[in-house]
Amino acid sequence: MTTINSSSLMAMRSAILQQNSALQKAAGNPAGAAIAVPGAEAPKADFTEALRGALTEVNGLQSKAGAASEAYEKGETTDIAAVMLSREQASVGFQATLQVRNKLLSAYKDIMSMPV
Predict the structure, then answer these.
(1) Which domain of life does the UniProt lineage start with (predicted)?
(2) Domain co-membership, 48 together with 33
């Protein structure tokens, strides 16, 4: 059994990257080019911006639900169904955001507990 040190690990990484590049060139796909899927939108390249956009949308839903609830309490509107729908949308958005956060924390903990 061989021991793995940092230099051999970096050499293996370099070999894998070279093989990946060669395979992409052989397949006619230049290295780093995205593979187009018909009818699909290109994914956002920046995770931070995607997360920020999702949080902004959830915040907007919560603000809208708060405004609808306040309007109902003041008697400005009598449509309880619209108020409940906006509150439920905000709740579902918040729960989804919470689940994404939990998954990210779990992945972070898994990565940090991996031996180097």
Answers:
(1) Bacteria
(2) no
